[in-house]
Design goal:
heterodimer; A: 312 residues; mainly beta; four-stranded antiparallel β-sheet; 44% strand; B: 162 residues; alpha+beta; GMP Synthetase, Chain A, domain 3; three-stranded mixed β-sheet; globular
């Protein structure tokens, strides 16, 4: 099975520290990472991967390969503890943040004025909020929390409200991710499972901002490990996980035996020692199918090529 | 809250049972031989944590029987360490701090390859699940250690007594 995922190269992006998370730019030309090293003398350097020269790596968040370093245009204040996650809505007009202070904040973005106005503080979770992510096409926000739940939020008149709570995980939900259609949501948890949540209706025809009721039917749980992070590939639908056991795994939907058979996912690739320590982040390339970047406590960023094994 | 002396808040467990310290580890002939690798074993981990100071009493975790060698499990080949600790009373508010001190001591002492599992001996604390969940959350542990006040308290627990 290991040949389903093969290492392309490894970049020591955050030496002597750890790398918490990764994100590709929409074109796939840039990869941003953030680490525990707050000093940034390394920022201007951008190590180039010898085997995939089209993948420049920026070792510091917000410092891409442009000749001019971006400047801070706004600082968003309000959270009482460290901010865990931030996400742009696909429209670009909204931003969401979450924190250990248990709240999720939705911000309205005025790009021309470079102004960010808080439009809602959502306190649905009872514990730290670990991750926020927007639906790929609707103004629908999902958050994952230490309180073992996933919550969904939508706009209602001028405010935002929690419109669904997804319960089932038995420990911290580390992260959530939508598939490219927005039809399914996958969550990963300290309870060592992933859960795939599916809407009961076909793709919603309701206007943006009004999600269909509750994406309830829970399809199978597949084994995973603590602090894993799921990321479904926008191009292939394969779900990659970053895991606290140093491993990277890829799960795929198993071709159903009959149209009425329940949806199941299977393990398609497993690299046991993908990093020297915990793996913290995974990110599929947005344009090139099967190109995966991973990062971990060892401070490295690794690039992998994934090919779906036959007969899955 | 910590280092409570006379005149400070009353201790939660004012009169704890005190246990005898174990002796020094006997050194075997094999261990004297520098040519042979020594695996990390239960006793080595126990020796790292037994002298950690209790946050409340001028005693070590070993003297209070909070840590015991039989509750330390090491698998050197698989790079796993599991430590169970037993708060002296079921409502001990210091349980998280004690667990954090054990975790930090091991994080600082062991090679990076080790996966640490520090948890409360099952059935010995009222908030066992909540404490274990906190100790297992590496983001929370990282955030706790960025809190300079808390880090100072942990360092006091880990400092050698004069």
């Amino acid at each position: 099975m290991p040949e389903a995922l093969s290492l392309l190269c490894r970049v020591p992006a955050h030496p002597e520290s750890r790398c918490w998370a990764l994100a590709w730019s929409p074109s796939g030309a840039l990869l941003a990472s953030c680490g525990g090293d707050r000093t940034s003398p390394r920022c201007p350097q951008s190590p180039q991967c010898p085997q995939c020269p089209h993948v420049p790596v920026s070792p510091c968040p917000g410092v891409p390969m442009s000749p001019v370093s971006p400047q801070v245009v706004a600082t968003l204040e309000g959270h009482e503890n460290e901010v865990k996650s931030v996400a742009w809505a696909p429209s670009g007009t909204l931003l969401a943040t979450c924190s250990r202070d248990k709240s999720v904040w939705v911000w309205e973005v005025d790009e021309e004025e470079e102004e960010f106005e808080c439009v809602s503080v959502l306190s649905a979770h009872t514990q730290d909020v670990k991750h926020v992510v927007w639906h790929p096409s609707l103004q629908l926000l999902a958050s994952a929390s230490y309180d073992d739940t996933v919550r969904l939020y939508r706009e209602d008149d001028d405010d935002w409200l929690c419109c669904a709570t997804l319960e089932g995980h038995t420990s911290t939900v580390w992260a959530v991710a939508w598939d490219s259609s927005g039809h399914r949501l996958v969550s990963c948890s300290d309870d060592r499972t992933l859960r795939v949540w599916q809407r009961p209706c076909p793709l919603p025809v309701t206007p943006p901002g009004v999600p269909c009721p509750l994406p309830d039917p829970v399809s199978p749980c597949v084994p995973s490990c603590p602090r894993s992070l799921p990321d479904p590939c926008p191009l292939t639908g394969a779900v990659a996980t970053a895991c606290g056991d140093d491993a990277v795994r890829v799960f795929e939907e198993v071709t159903p035996a009959s149209p009425t058979a329940p949806v199941t996912f299977g393990l398609a690739a497993h690299v046991a020692r993908a990093h020297a320590q915990d793996v913290n982040g995974v990110a599929w390339h947005p344009r090139e199918p099967g190109l995966l970047a991973t990062c971990g406590d060892d401070g490295d960023i690794a690039f992998w090529r994934y090919q779906r094994p036959e007969g899955l | 809250m910590v280092g409570a002396g006379p005149g400070a808040a009353p201790l939660e467990n004012a009169n704890p049972l005190i246990y005898r310290r174990s002796g020094e580890r006997p050194v075997t002939a094999r261990e004297e031989d520098d040519e042979l690798p020594d695996a990390i074993d239960d006793r080595e981990i126990f020796d790292l944590i037994r002298s950690i100071n209790d946050p409340e009493h001028p005693l070590t975790l070993e003297e209070l029987n909070v840590v015991e060698q039989v509750r330390v499990k090491v698998n050197d080949a698989e790079s796993t360490v599991s430590v169970e600790f037993t708060p002296t009373i079921p409502h001990c508010s210091m349980a998280t701090l004690i667990g954090l001190s054990i975790k930090v001591k091991l994080l600082r002492s062991l090679p990076d390859r080790f996966k640490l599992d520090v948890h409360i001996t099952p059935g010995t604390h009222a908030s066992e699940h909540a404490v274990n969940k906190q100790l297992a959350d590496k983001e929370r542990v990282a955030a706790a250690l960025e809190n300079s006040h808390l880090l100072e308290v942990v360092n006091q627990c880990l400092s050698a007594r004069s």
